[in-house]
Amino acid sequence: MTLPNGEICQAWICHLALVATPGVPHFCRMGMPELKRRRKALKLSLDTVAQRVGLSTSQVQRFETGEREPKKSDLERLAALLECRVEDLLQGASEARPAPAPLRNLLPIPLAGRTAAGVYREVVEFNDAEPDYVFEPEDEDFPKARRFALEVEGDSMNQADPPIPDGARVVCVDFGETGQPFQDGMIVVLQRTREGGHLIEWSVKEIELHDDEVWFCPRSSNKRHKPIKVVNNPSSDEWNTLEVIGLVRDVSMRVRAFKQRRPV
Question: What pTM did the predictor assign?
């Protein structure tokens, strides 16, 4: 089964610079401010550019913000559309600061933000933020895949296995880098976009495979949460605003702190 690409998405995650090998810092991919500047100068929306060069809206957005590195063929098509040279598009590209060094066999994982079903946030909310990091052991199943962490808001997965209550933290791997197909029972991070990619929603869902559909299901005591049902065909228009960006690998919940009692 061919599935839609699931790279790490969203403008903020250009800071997803992971240390893949202890002691060797990796930088995030280079952003392309000139691509965005030239696109806006020609009054072209992300949707329009994507359609004319045969890419998805989220792919073009990730090129601009540095979350994804374009292929040579992508750059050539973009340059032709924007009436410039490939070299022009690469002007001003810069790299982010490196992630912190490993800490006693624990690797730094950027805390990318919050995930809440039904809550759309502006992409600009994440653009200028410097990431906080959590530290976790290497993922033995996907040691080379980039990882990111999210704080969960809401009750849409409070009856999952394991439960993911409000306030929990999930650690995820980049779904596209796992090489895995969708499978029943996978818990994933789903991104939905609106207004040409300017608004995004992240939500944690469990996959159910049906004959011709993929269902992204809540597992909640709150029956108001409904599954998102999508045709099982990545070329369908429905996938233009949907993307699986992460596979949830770990769930943690901080224990409530108690004030220390004074001795009687």
Answer: 0.63
